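== Sequence entry ==
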Amino acid sequence: MSKSNPFEYKLVIVIRGDLKISTGKLIAQACHAAVEASEDAKKINHTAWRKWHDEGAKKVAVVAEDIKELGELAEKAKKLDIVNVMIQDRGLTEVAPGTVTVLGIGPDRSDKIDKVTGDLPLLK
């Protein structure tokens, strides 16, 4: 851990840029991804989860173009043995049931996750 970047671990939330959903819905979906990915990592990769948690539980939100790119990112994460979760909406308000809205990746080492999401733009 360097002074310029105190975080060695992070959880990344990848949001579909092609969905036109409200800010509230977007935040709720991102929260679902953060909670589910954290819970999975706690069981599957407890050492990384503990280090992430203890250093402050950094979370980053980035944007993917569409569902195709989300799937490609999930596959890359899987190949690198990084916990990842696809979040599907129940379809009660703004989108059809089963619509994939976000992808949670990690928590894991930042350098490892950057191999999957490092080129994506931050959510603005």
